[in-house]
């Protein structure tokens, strides 16, 4: 578990003439489970992508310890997402031509790990997320829930300090969504993994311990909950 906070200061970003972030300051503590909520167009995904180094904000900074995420080159940010940050997207974005185990091993292979070692570790993570049996199957042969678990294993295989998840249940049915969220909750509680998750679904947001609600590219409210509060929300 990392002991390093992620700190965003004065984040601003626009797409053409449309502002997406309008000055956001945010500190994410190690081991927290942060959910970013808000209406469509409020800047949720843009904020997550800026925090994860997927995009570089127009202004402001993102720092992770002594690393300037926002000031790093594209190559350095890609390396960061292969090692210390894991990113899980709504549709998984698995490589269709690769098997599940090859998809999960991909970040390790890109980092120079020998194939046999990388695929052995990938197989372990497929087991940890409950889909070891699909290791040899390609994405087109997987259910939506299985594919998202494979994508989650890929995001975690490098034992990242922070997992960023952008609407990870948006393409799943309710049972598959609940299974993925239960798994994320276990990773947070048992392994101390820091999780930052974007969602528009109240039942998904209820899994978080800190809620950052955006409105028009700004933080409208920031709320923190104890474990009893989380359980009560999840049962609503």
Average per-residue pLDDT, rounded, comes to: 89
- The CATH topology is Rossmann fold
Which range best describes the helical content: under 10%, 10-25%, 25-40%, 40-55%, 55-70% or over 70%?
25-40%
CATH architecture designation: 3-Layer(aba) Sandwich
Whole-number count of domains? 1
Question: What class, by secondary structure content?
Answer: alpha/beta
- CATH H-level name... which superfamily? P-loop containing nucleotide triphosphate hydrolases
SS elements, strand count:
10
As residue ranges, the low-confidence spans are 230-236
Silhouette: globular
Strand content: 25-35%
Keywords: ATP-binding, Nucleotide-binding, Transport
Pfam family, one: ABC_tran
GO molecular function: ATP binding
Domain ABC transporter: 6-234
Describe the structure concisely:
The protein is 37% helix and 26% strand. It has helices spanning 44-52, 74-83, 100-110, 115-128, 144-156, 174-191, 202-205, 227-234, and strands at residues 6-15, 18-28, 33-38, 59-64, 67-68, 85-88, 162-166, 194-198, 210-215, 218-224. The two termini are 31 Å apart.
List the helices and strands and how they pair.
Elements (H helix, E strand, L loop, with lengths): L5 E10 L2 E11 L4 E6 L5 H9 L6 E6 L2 E2 L5 H10 L1 E4 L11 H11 L4 H14 L15 H13 L5 E5 L7 H18 L2 E5 L3 H4 L4 E6 L2 E7 L2 H8 L2
Parallel strand pairs: 3-8, 3-9, 6-7, 7-8
Antiparallel strand pairs: 1-2, 1-4, 4-5, 9-10
């Amino acid at each position: 578990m990392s002991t390093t906070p992620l700190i965003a200061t004065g984040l601003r970003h626009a797409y053409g003439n449309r502002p997406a972030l309008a000055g956001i300051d945010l500190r994410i503590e190690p081991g927290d489970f942060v959910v970013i909520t808000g209406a469509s167009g409020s800047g949720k995904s843009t904020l997550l992508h800026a925090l994860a180094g997927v995009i570089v904000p127009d202004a402001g900074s993102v720092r992770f310890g002594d690393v300037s995420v926002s000031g790093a080159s594209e190559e350095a940010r890609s390396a960061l997402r292969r090692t210390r940050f894991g990113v899980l997207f709504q549709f998984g974005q698995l490589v269709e031509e690769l098997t599940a185990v090859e998809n999960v091993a991909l970040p390790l292979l890109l980092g120079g790990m020998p194939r046999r070692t990388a695929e052995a570790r990938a197989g372990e993570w497929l087991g940890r997320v409950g889909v070891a049996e699909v290791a040899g199957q390609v994405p087109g042969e997987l259910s939506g829930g299985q594919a998202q678990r494979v994508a989650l294993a890929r995001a975690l295989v490098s034992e990242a300090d922070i997992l960023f998840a952008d609407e990870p249940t948006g393409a799943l049915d309710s049972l598959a969504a609940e299974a993925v969220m239960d798994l994320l909750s276990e990773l947070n509680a048992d392994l101390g993994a820091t999780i930052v998750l974007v969602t528009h679904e109240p039942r998904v947001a209820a899994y978080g311990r800190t809620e950052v609600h955006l409105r028009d590219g700004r933080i409208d409210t920031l709320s923190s909950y104890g474990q009893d509060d989380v359980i009560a929300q999840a049962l609503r």
